[in-house]
Target: lysozyme
Amino acid sequence: MFDRVESENACLLAMCDADSGCVPKGCSIDQNNRIGCGYFRLNIYQFRQCYQPGKKEDEDEEIAWINCAEDYHCSAECIRVLGSRFRVKCYGKSDCETLARIHDGGANGCRDRSVPHY
Model:
């Protein structure tokens, strides 16, 4: 099996554990019928919105997405970038809740009533 990731960020580690058991392999379909893969069940739209970290110039986008999703540090950085981009819509939420709600619900995750409360 896979070794568990040790992280300095308890929030990201909890998100990782909830999304995948904190293992790099595997994909699943989310509530919006998008395929999410890797540690955080990162989908390709999230990968695009976080500016495609780690993607090489001539690399296929889907391959780069899977590579990032299966790399803890790359996918965690993507989650952080998304949180930074859209946090203004999460007034009054903790940093951890902001990250989780944006990850689960996209740019409007803090306002979307269908996103679980944390």
Observations:
- The helical segments are 10-20, 44-49, 61-69, 72-86, 95-105.
